C-alpha cells in the first residue's frame, strides 16, 4: 500500500487535496465535532481507493520525471482543491434549501426568535430550520447518498474533471452554482408553501374574528393555534416531504453528473 502511494505521490496528493477539501465543505463532515485527524484519514483512504482507477496523464507535463514538484503543480493542486470545494458546496446548497424552508415556517409560526446554534450548518438557525436539516440528513444517510457521493460522484469527477477543464469551462461552473442558489429558494418555497399558506389563512380568520368580537382577544390566542396546526401539518406531510428530499438529492446528483460530462478537458 505504502509503496504504491510513494511511487505515485504527486497523483496521490492531488486526489487527497480534492477529497479533503470536499470533506471540509460537505454537510455533517464539516462539523467541528468531527476531528481534523478523522477528516485527514478519510480523505487519505478515499485518495488511495481512487488512485488505481484514474489516469492523470494530462498532468504529466506538470510533474517532473524525478518526482519533484514544479510551480505549475502548485497551481494544479489549488485547482483540485477548488473542485472539491465546488462539489461540497453544491451539496451544502441542497441542504440549505431544507433549512431555509424551516426558517420560513418558523417566521410564520412565531418561532423566529427561538434560534440556537446549528451544528450542521454552523450558524444560528431557528428550531424548525434545524428540524428539517436533521430530517434531510437522516434521509440522505438512509438512502445511501453518502456512499454514492464518495464511491460514485467523487470517482466520476476524477475521471472527467480536472483543473484544466475547470479553467476552460469556468463560465459553466459559475452558471452551475448560480442555478443551484436559485434552486435553493424555489425548493424552500415549495416545501414551506403549504404550511405558510395555511397559517396565513388562520391569521386572516383570527383578524376578522377579532374585529367582529374585540372582547375575545383572538389575536393572542392565535399563536398557540398556529403552532398546533403547524405541527399537525408537518406530521401529515412528512412522508411527502421526505419524498421531495429524495427527489432533490437525485436532481442534485444528476446535475453534478451533467456538469462532469460537459467538461471536455477531463481526464480520460
Description of the structure:
With 268 residues, the chain is an all-alpha fold. It contains nine helices and two strands; from the N terminus they run H-H-H-H-E-E-H-H-H-H-H. It has a two-stranded antiparallel ribbon with strand order 1-2. Strand 1 (115-118) and strand 2 form a beta hairpin. Helix 4 (71-109) packs parallel to helix 8 (170-212), helix 4 (71-109) runs antiparallel to helix 9 and helix 6 (145-160) runs parallel beside helix 9. The model is unreliable at 264-268 (pLDDT under 50).
Please sum up the structure shown.
By secondary structure, the chain is mainly α. The chain contains nine helices and two strands; from the N terminus they run ααααββααααα.
> Helical element count?
9
Q: What is the residue-mean pLDDT, rounded to a whole number?
A: 76
Helical residues, percent: over 70%
Structural class call reads mainly alpha
Taking the sheet with the most strands, its summary is: 2 strands, antiparallel
Which regions have little confidence, pLDDT < 50, spanning 5+ residues? Answer: 264-268
As a whole number of angstroms, the C-alpha radius of gyration is: 23 Å
| Helix-strand sequence | HHHHEEHHHHH
The dominant shape is elongated
Q: Which key terms come to mind for this protein?
A:
mainly alpha; two-stranded antiparallel ribbon; 9 helices; 2 strands; elongated
Itemize the secondary structure elements and their pairings.
Elements: H1 2-7, H2 9-25, H3 36-51, H4 71-109, E1 115-118, E2 123-126, H5 127-142, H6 145-160, H7 163-168, H8 170-212, H9 218-261
Antiparallel strand pairs: 1-2
Helix pairs in contact: 2-3, 2-4, 4-5, 4-8, 4-9, 5-9, 6-9, 8-9
Amino acid at each position: 500500500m505504502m509503496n504504491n502511494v510513494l511511487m505515485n505521490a504527486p497523483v496521490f496528493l492531488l486526489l487527497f487535496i480534492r477529497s479533503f477539501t470536499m470533506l471540509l465543505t460537505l454537510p455533517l463532515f464539516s462539523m467541528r465535532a468531527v476531528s481534523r485527524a478523522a477528516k485527514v484519514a478519510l480523505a487519505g483512504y478515499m485518495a488511495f481507493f481512487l488512485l488505481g482507477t484514474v489516469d492523470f496523464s494530462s498532468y504529466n507535463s506538470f510533474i517532473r520525471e524525478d518526482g519533484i514538484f514544479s510551480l505549475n503543480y502548485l497551481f494544479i493542486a489549488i485547482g483540485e482543491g477548488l473542485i472539491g470545494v465546488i462539489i461540497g458546496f453544491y451539496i451544502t446548497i441542497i441542504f440549505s434549501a431544507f433549512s431555509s424552508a424551516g426558517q420560513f415556517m418558523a417566521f410564520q409560526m412565531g418561532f423566529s426568535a427561538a434560534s440556537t446554534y446549528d451544528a450542521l450548518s454552523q450558524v444560528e438557525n431557528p428550531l424548525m430550520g434545524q428540524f428539517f436539516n436533521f430530517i434531510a440528513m437522516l434521509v440522505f444517510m438512509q438512502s445511501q447518498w453518502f456512499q454514492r457521493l464518495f464511491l460514485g460522484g467523487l470517482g466520476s469527477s476524477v475521471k472527467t474533471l480536472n483543473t484544466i477543464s475547470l479553467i476552460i469551462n469556468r463560465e459553466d461552473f459559475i452558471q452551475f452554482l448560480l442555478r443551484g442558489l436559485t434552486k435553493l429558494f424555489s425548493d424552500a418555497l415549495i416545501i414551506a408553501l403549504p404550511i405558510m399558506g395555511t397559517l396565513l389563512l388562520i391569521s386572516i380568520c383570527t383578524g376578522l374574528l377579532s374585529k367582529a368580537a374585540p372582547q375575545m382577544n383572538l389575536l393572542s390566542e392565535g399563536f398557540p393555534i398556529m403552532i398546533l396546526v403547524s405541527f399537525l401539518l408537518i406530521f401529515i406531510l412528512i412522508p411527502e416531504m421526505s419524498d421531495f428530499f429524495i427527489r432533490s438529492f437525485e436532481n442534485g446528483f444528476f446535475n453534478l453528473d451533467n456538469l462532469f460530462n460537459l467538461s471536455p478537458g477531463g481526464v480520460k
